[in-house]
Amino acid sequence: MSNLVERNRTRLIYAKMTEVSKRGYMEPVQLPDGKTTTIDLEPEILKKALIKLFERPAMAVSSPEDAAIKISTHYRNCLSRNFEKLNETGNAFIASLLSNLVEQAFAEKEQQ
Hints:
Elements: H1 2-21, E1 26-30, E2 36-40, H2 43-61, H3 64-77, H4 88-111
Antiparallel strand pairs: 1-2
Organism: Candidatus Pantoea gossypiicola
Protein name: Phage protein
């Protein structure tokens, strides 16, 4: 089942990176305080964020098999029918994920 999660995660990352490549890989991110910042988005950053902020928490509250099905289904539901583009749900999901990632990075920086 993890192969299905990995395949759909890869599709999600590919769709986002294709979209962001048109802007030079710079992605604007809305912070919770209303400010906007930009990040230089790379596939590895997106993969780590998906695993850390979405997949691991999902695995912690469900059985591995059930979580894998839910994660894979969610990733698939974020993509267009042909898996090449993010749909509205996918764009909102990735925007929220990146916002959370940046928020955590700023919080860790302030603690140092």
